[in-house]
Amino acid sequence: ASYKPLLKQVVEEICSADRPDSVDIEHMSSGLTDLLKTGFSMFMKVNRPHPGDHPLLIIFMVGGVTVSEVKMVKDLVATRKPSTQVIVLSSALLTPQGAIEQLFAADHPQLDHDI
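RESULT FIELD:
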C-alpha cells in the first residue's frame, strides 16, 4: 500500500496529458464564451473547458493541508505544466501533531437535532 494525498490526486488529474473528462472537477465559467460552451454542452457534443486550460489554478482544501502536500503540488505543477500558477488555500495549515489532535479531538461538533 502507498499513500497518495488527495491534493496530489486532484492536481495530477488536472495536469494529466490525456485529459479525460473528470467527474469530480469542473471548470467554472469565467466569461460569455465559457458560459455558452457549458450551456450548449447539455444539448450538443461540445467540449467543455478543462480546468488545466487556464493559466491560474485555485484549489481550496477544507480541513487543512500540510507543508509537504503543498511542496508536492509545487513540484508536480513545475514538471507537468510550468506555465500554470497554482494557489493552494486551506482552512488550516496542518502539522503532524495538529492532524492527530483533530482526528482524536473529544469536542467534535455535534448536530443540533432540534432544527
